[in-house]
Design goal:
This protein is mainly α. It has one domain. The protein is built from seven helices and no strands. The radius of gyration is 17 Å and the shape is globular. It binds fe (ii) ion (2 copies). The site of one fe (ii) ion has 4 residues, from α6. One fe (ii) ion binds next to α3.
């Protein structure tokens, strides 16, 4: 692991340790990830033209919707009905969360600017999903390892299995549909890493401002 990856891991560990020790912060963390799952769900549905919607993509969208719901239910259970929304105050850094996904989406879409619309939508969906799933597996696994609440660990295990399958499915499609997969992946991975670093910084800032005594 290089130095910046290591310091990112340390930062994420510290951030999660703070979050899981406080039910209110923990609910905001869960609702932030619920929101990201929800954006993913919405994006998958919109990225496909109906004529090309397959059972696999539909199942993927439904599972992201279910992840959004499951994480939100955990937030509500931890900290009450106030979390039954995506109001900014029920999350940690909703703007940064949305910016991470939308910027990643635009970055990937730009790769396929000259492709016909349906093809562009399909390939963008594959790359965005691939990059996000890799990151989600990393973050959710770290979170799971630091979680004292066994009930949440059990829920995360189901979610992680599905994320792992999404990753394998999209990677198989990318290898078969994009002859430039290797080069494109090498180009996009550091771009995603930079966006994630910004997101993590905003998450840390949001937590710092939450713990400043009023
Ligand atoms: Fe998900
Ligand atoms: Fe997924």
């Amino acid at each position: 692991m290089n130095e910046s990856l290591m310091s990112e891991q340390v930062q994420l560990d510290a951030l999660i340790a703070t979050v899981v020790a406080d039910p209110h912060l923990h609910a905001r963390w869960l609702n932030t990830f619920s929101f990201m799952e929800y954006i993913g769900f919405r994006k998958i549905v919109k990225s496909q033209q109906a004529e090309h919607m397959t059972a696999q993509i539909l199942a993927h969208a439904m599972e992201e919707g279910r992840h959004a719901l499951g994480l939100k239910k955990l937030a509500i259970k931890l900290a009450g009905p106030a979390f039954d929304s995506y109001e900014p105050e029920t999350m940690l850094c909703s703007e940064a969360a949305e910016a991470y996904i939308q910027t990643l989406d635009r970055t990937c879409e730009a790769q396929f600017a000259s492709a016909p619309e349906a093809e562009r939508g399909r390939l963008t969906y594959l790359y965005v999903t691939w990059l996000i799933e890799k990151r989600a597996l990393d973050v959710y696994n770290t979170y799971k390892a630091l979680l004292p609440q066994q009930e949440i660990v059990a829920k995360l295990e189901g979610l992680l299995l599905e994320e792992g399958r999404h990753l394998a499915d999209v990677e198989a499609s990318m290898r078969s549909k994009d002859p430039d997969f290797t080069e494109r992946a090498a180009l996009l991975l550091p771009r995603e890493a930079a966006l994630y670093e910004t997101f993590l910084g905003e998450l840390a800032d949001a937590l710092r401002s939450c713990s400043v005594p009023a």
